[in-house]
Design a protein that fits this description.
Layout lengths: L2 E8 L3 H14 L4 E5 L4 H7 L5 H8 L3 E6 L16 H11 L3 E6 L13 H4 L4 E6 L9 E3 L4 E3 L5 H14 L3 E6 L5 H17 L4 E6 H10 L6 E4 L1 H12 L9 E5 L6 E5 L16 H14 L3 H16 L13 H9 L3
Parallel strand pairs: 1-2, 1-3, 3-12, 5-10, 8-9, 8-10
Antiparallel strand pairs: 4-5, 4-11, 6-7, 11-12
Helix pairs in contact: 1-10, 1-12, 6-7, 8-9, 10-11, 11-12
Length: 343
């Protein structure tokens, strides 16, 4: 029986990078039952909400969820009573219990010159950002009056332990736990719990604690020193986007959002919906292809097929493929054909 994949093309360039991704998946010999749902701004336009109960139910019954991107100026608002596309993302993460966001960052030698950093700085960089995804300030109690507003940042020992465990298990040599323990109480608990877990279960892995402002500086001055970075929701959101620039384009990075074993996971590129180029056929689909590869590996246990896609992307870039965000002229179709020819 074929695995069931829920497709959430979302907004902007989302539909344009979803369609060729299915071509790439077909080319590695995988056959799935696809079911597409409106999500984000598209769902707001149709249903008045970014995430419907029907979509939640479909995702819960699937083997994996493949999301493109959401958002755009059409739905930007500061009115708390109006829906925003990003609420769909937060709601789906909470509904599926997706507490661990994995963002690998590995600049390819073929793209070193596209990075804003010197090649000698990024050479050898191969890191993973593990971001806690369902706690912290994004999900805390919120208040708003005419003159004041507040967002509660709260974490429990259980939440910190489970995300730290993901990081330690993924580490090859070192875990860098990022916090703001010199100022914030939740960070002090975070540091305490991570330290205790390290001593009890993972003493063979090196652990270091780094304040978030220092971590932001080290990411652009010595990125190759990192192996696995683990941090809370908001810090992880910011640091993972900063790390994405090391590759030369945020259009190159995939991500996986995982919950407990046996529950469907969500896979999506790191980039946004790029409404300024939507409909022009010039979007870079490579991060979506690589997100599909992460789906094959982490969601469906298809390692050979995942590696095939990743190798095809690497080879296409080594042969000279450059989309516009990478300083070239290749459009979405040309990028897709370059990857397909290497499968």
């Amino acid at each position: 029986m074929a695995s069931k994949i829920i497709l959430l093309p979302g907004d902007g360039i989302g539909p344009e990078i979803t369609a060729p991704t299915l071509e790439v998946l077909d080319a590695v010999g995988t056959k799935f039952d696809y079911e597409e749902h409106l999500f984000g701004g598209a769902a707001i336009d149709e249903y008045g909400t970014a995430l419907t109960e029907q979509t939640v139910a479909a995702c819960r019954s699937a083997d994996a969820v493949l999301l493109a991107c959401v958002g755009g100026p059409k739905w930007d608002t500061t009115d708390p009573a109006r829906p925003r596309p990003e609420q769909g993302l937060l709601g789906l993460r909470k509904a599926l219990g997706l507490y661990a966001n994995l963002r690998p960052v590995r600049p390819l030698p073929a793209l070193y010159d596209a990075s804003p950093l010197k090649r000698e700085i990024i050479d050898g960089t191969d890191l993973l950002v593990v971001r806690e995804l369902t706690g912290g300030i994004y999900f805390g109690e919120k208040t708003r009056t005419k003159d004041t507003a507040s967002d509660v940042c709260a974490y429990s020992r259980v939440e910190i332990e489970r995300i730290a465990r993901v990081a330690f298990r993924a580490a090859r040599r070192k875990v860098t736990s990022v916090d703001k323990a010199n100022v914030i109480e939740t960070s002090r608990l975070w540091r305490e719990v991570v330290r205790e877990l390290h001593q009890a279960e993972f003493p063979d892995v090196t652990l270091e604690h780094v304040l978030v402002d220092n971590a932001a500086m080290q990411l652009v001055s010595n990125p190759a020193d990192f192996d696995v970075i683990v941090t809370e929701n908001m810090f992880g959101d910011i640091l993972s986007d900063e790390a994405a620039t090391l590759t030369g384009s945020i259009g190159m990075l995939p991500s996986a959002s995982l919950g407990e074993p046996g529950t469907p996971a969500l896979f999506e590129p790191v980039h946004g919906s790029a409404p300024d180029i939507a409909g022009q056929g010039i979007a870079n689909p490579l991060a979506m292809f690589l997100s599909a590869a992460m789906m094959l590996r982490h969601g469906l246990d298809l390692e050979a097929e995942a590696a095939a896609i990743e190798s095809a992307v690497d080879r296409a870039l080594a042969e000279g493929l450059r989309t516009r965000d990478l300083g070239g002229s290749a459009d979405t179709r040309a990028a897709t054909q370059a990857v397909l020819s290497n499968l």
